[in-house]
Amino acid sequence: MLLEGKRAIVTGASRGIGRGIALDFAREGADVAINHFAAADAAFDHAAAESLAADIRALGRRAIVIEGDVGKDDTADRLIGATVDAFGGLDILASNAGICPFHGFLDMPSSLLRTVIDVNLTGAYLVAQAAARQMVAQGRGGAIVATSSISALVGGAMQTHYTPTKAGVHSLMQSVAIALGRHGIRCNSVMPGAIATDINRDDWSDPQKRAYLDSRIPLGRFGTPEDVARVVSFLASERAPMSPGRRCWSTAGFS
Ligand code: NAD
Ligand code: RM4
């Protein structure tokens, strides 16, 4: 197992890619704190997080659920505090929470722009900072892996609020890798291509759109959360001892 005895936080873990990461961490031997937040569908999202926690416990690992919007100032400290209380420390952060409410550019409301930046970029910053403070205090190093996106490199007409946050997440990992290297904390981002989750359900649930999108992907299919999770587990593990912040991984090969 790659992560035996490690204590991890995964943000945005109730569904999609985060759920895949949390499950893979547990399969690899880690205890997992599950963060999630969905104001519009809170009960459904919470039930999904609790069922993930049950799946992780069934694998013989510890799991806790911490609901909270990563874009709010007090969430990061609460998340790290609850994890340390439950597991006795923190070794790995998978900073994965993100939203992409597709919208055109010319009529983008500034409130939507600010919400996406708050969750995707400010949230990633605050959680990485709080996690790093804990890891530095423990003095045993650690690993931070953030979910960026291939969209950070190629853009998207309906994602003008989103793609700059994903470029920012990648840049954040490059900078914190430099800031934290002296503490033995490795920081990376992954840049997934198209992964079939709730975030893009409108694309892949329409058969015509799906066929078009599949045909544009060299491997001929959307990626899965597990495709991304395996890369994140590797980067979080001691098998990636010299991987500070300069690696980009695209799982679905989007062009
Ligand atoms: P998803 O909609 O399936 O899941 C989103 C998760 O984030 C849920 O667990 C939800 O509870 C959580 N969340 C939403 N807002 C939150 C907030 N304010 N605070 C805390 N948690 C919050 O989406 P997904 O596709 O799994 O996306 C996960 C990450 O992967 C995002 O950062 C997204 O940008 C990135 N990504 C997705 C794709 C893709 O094709 N699906 C590709 C590249 C990158
Ligand atoms: C991702 C990537 C995917 C898109 C999601 C919403 O970063 O661009 O293709 O479906 O965002």
Set down the secondary structure blueprint.
Layout (H helix, E strand, L loop, with lengths): L6 E4 L5 H12 L3 E6 L5 H17 L4 E5 L7 H13 L4 E4 L14 H29 L3 E6 L3 H4 L8 H18 L4 E6 L10 H4 L2 H10 L8 H12 L19
The protein binds nicotinamide-adenine-dinucleotide (NAD) and beta-L-rhamnopyranose.
Nicotinamide-adenine-dinucleotide (NAD) binds next to helix 1 and strand 2.
Structure in words:
- The protein is an alpha/beta fold and 255 residues long.
- The protein has one domain (7-197, 225-236): Rossmann fold, CATH 3.40.50.720.
- The protein is 47% helix and 12% strand.
- It is built from 9 helices and 6 strands; from the N terminus they run βαβαβαβαβααβααα.
- It has helices spanning 16-27, 42-58, 75-87, 110-138, 151-154, 163-180, 201-204, 207-216, 225-236; strands at residues 7-10, 31-36, 63-67, 92-95, 142-147, 185-190.
- Strands 3-2-1-4-5-6 form a 6-stranded parallel β-sheet, sandwiched between helices.
- Helix 1 links the parallel strand 1 (7-10) and strand 2 (31-36).
- Helix 4 (110-138) packs parallel to helix 6 (163-180).
- The longest helix has 29 residues, at 110-138.
- The two termini are 34 Å apart.
- 47% of the residues are buried.
- Residues 245-255 have low confidence and may be disordered.
- Residues 100, 149, 151, 156, 166, 194, 199-200 line the site of beta-L-rhamnopyranose (RM4).
- Residues 11-18, 35-38, 45, 69-71, 96-100, 119, 147, 149, 192, 194-195, 197-200 line the site of nicotinamide-adenine-dinucleotide (NAD).
